[in-house]
Amino acid sequence: MTTPFGGPARTAPGLPQLPTPPTGWPIGSYATYAEAQRAVDHLADSDFPVRDVTIVGVDLMLVERVIGRLSWGRVLGSAALSGAWLGLFVGMLLFLFTPGSGIGPFLVGLISGAVFAMVFAAVGYGASRGRRDFQTASQMVAGRYDVLCEPRNAEQAREMLARLAMGTSPNT
Length: 172
Hints:
The chain has helices at 33-45, 72-97, 104-128, 151-166, and strands at 25-30, 53-69, 134-149. It has 172 residues and is α+β, with helices and mostly antiparallel strands. It folds into two domains: 25-66 and 139-166, HD domain like (Alpha-Beta Plaits); 71-132, no CATH class. The chain has a three-stranded antiparallel β-sheet with strand order 1-3-2. Helix 2 (72-97) runs antiparallel to helix 3. The radius of gyration is 26 Å and the shape is elongated. The model has no long low-confidence stretch (mean pLDDT 87). Pfam families: YflT (PF11181). Keywords: Membrane, Transmembrane, Transmembrane helix. The chain crosses the membrane at residues 75-97, 103-125.
């Protein structure tokens, strides 16, 4: 198996090479990922063989939160800043490989990076014609998180998580 970049894939031993549905018996179901993580952490702290455990997000949703309004000024300003950073990096490379060049490569990289980024951002934003004048942050979340365990240890894991839920566990 190879990665998209052509190198060999580095997977953990025992994990499937291709995407496969999870296996195991349900040992707990939680409303948030933090609760499911806490349950698995409890099992790990209790020396349970956690290699048998899987957290599965069920009822996946793509949540897109609006974080601001876009305007020409904001689009061009953020493009100029990100382009300037890239240009500064290119300028640094030019400086390193052009001895005695002074500060010129830094300025050329900084300015050209900002200008090119602003042009590309302006073309992209202009092409949208105001259909998307807002900026968002996307996140994949689940409606619930099920914790599964291989059958050989599922009953023991259920008992440990039940004690955790009741607050009677020695490791709480």
